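for ur thesis appendix - ATP-dependent 6-phosphofructokinase. copy paste whatever u need, i formatted it the way the template wanted (i think)
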Amino acid sequence: MGSISHAITTLPHCHHGPRLSHSNSLLITSKVAYKHKSRVFAALSSNNHSFTPTTDIDLNDPDWKTKFQKDFEARFRLPHLTDIFPHAAPIPSTFCLKMRTPIDGDFPGHYSSDEEWHGYINNNDRVLLKTIHYSSPTSAGAECIDPDCTWVEQWVHRAGPREKIYFRPEEVKAAIVTCGGLCPGLNDVIRQIVITLEIYGVKKIVGIPFGYRGFSDKELTEVPLSRKVVQNIHLSGGSLLGVSRGGPGVGDIVDSLEERGINMLFVLGGNGTHAGANAIHNECRKKQLKVSVIGVPKTIDNDILLMDKTFGFDTAVEEAQRAINSAYIEAHSAYHGIGIVKLMGRSSGFIAMQATLSSGQVDICLIPELLFNLHGPHGVLSHLKYLLQTKGSAVVCVAEGAGQDLLQKTNITDASGNIVFGDIGVYIQQETKKYFKEIGVHADVKYIDPTYMIRAVRANASDGILCTVLGQNAVHGAFAGYSGITVGLCNTHYAYFPIPEVISHPRLVDPNSRMWHRCLTSTGQPDFI
Ligand SMILES: Nc1ncnc2c1ncn2[C@@H]1O[C@H](COP(=O)(O)OP(=O)(O)O)[C@@H](O)[C@H]1O
Ligand SMILES: O=P(O)(O)OC[C@H]1O[C@](O)(COP(=O)(O)O)[C@@H](O)[C@@H]1O
Ligand SMILES: [Mg+2]
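the 3d part is after this line
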């Protein structure tokens, strides 16, 4: 068998290479089994745009590249309503910025659109998923398919308005639902979806309150939405519609969609929500319902695959600066001061890494992707002692999912089935105090947990733009007849992805990436193992 697992033999070890933490185990089981474990991680963690082929590729086959690309094209093909309704006939788009039709409530048999308008996206337009041609698997962050790092173009579908649409606006009832935890920008996305739907001519737009739960809880009623209702909602954080974890099963949700006559569903949420959205899409197909289900990835943790970043992440990093700066001021102003800041990041340390990079005030950054010791000669505490001796103060930034192996397992899950973690921030604070007392060195330890404060703020300017474009593209995707897709930023362009491709596992910080290396350069921290 000449599969990739046999193809790559030797890859050099990095002397200071990071030890992989528990969270990588699911990646190593992948079919693309490189021999060097940290390379497996580098190849599959999708720090940016890597992906795992569904089939083993025989690299001895002279046609492997063509086969690989065919496989890729098939995997990234967007599910379309015509898959189940082959005779569904499209109509010219009602989205035309030149004509802005229809204006009033009545819809004649046809819609006037400007034939000369060239503002549409062709269904064959594509965006390049990977933009670096690595010349060696040893290049930092390399994502290679074969040992020669052969250049293989991988294209995904460009997002945007299509010239032909598969829904008549007067027949649409659109619903928006926001699930999971809060994230800056939810209101911006809701607002933009509503505004864009109205431009297409949709009149029936509703919000489902409190996540998927709103589909089954009889006490909760639909929220009518219009441009007027959403006009200023982006000026505050949170979600106009409310959020929740857990809720009804897919069958009940689809029954509810049928009862309510909803045929466009916009689902804003993270990995779990998207798994739900994909299941809803599949159930609608099974029941032969003409429903378009479109996701918009919402995760402050930035843990969705294949995308440059998700909305709310930038805002979180920016807001985290305030906490880090306070920790720094406290630590710097005290004799032997130590400031500890805990940031969100269940399995991915992106917020902690980027906040560390941007603040320039952090000495130790701890993320879920990398194991660390607190105690012992190479542990965090001994480095803190060194920092107090040499700098006089220190700042630690820790992601909530880091160091969970050091804590007692809670075995508790939330309503969505996510494991409830032990508090690593509090643990580090306590252990730090204990350690310095034991060694008889004065240390003034201050702990800051700004997590929920960060999550509740409104989106900053850059996220505001991201939300706007994602919201618009979600609506374009639905009218284009796609379903079971989500929208994301890909190498500064906007693309549609089949949902399963972006949620097969959480996107993680790649310890071999340049970004993590830059973070280490910035903090000057050693390996804590
Ligand atoms: N595998 C799954 N299949 C279907 N629905 C899911 C799945 N995982 C989570 N959900 C539902 O998605 C919603 C949000 O999930 P959660 O994990 O809390 O947040 P997020 O979407 O941000 O990851 C919850 O209502 C939950 O019941
Ligand atoms: O207290 P809650 O609502 O469970 O939220 C905590 C979780 O929310 C997050 O910010 C994001 O999680 P989701 O993407 O699942 O919403 C995690 O970082 C954190 O673990
Ligand atoms: Mg989640």
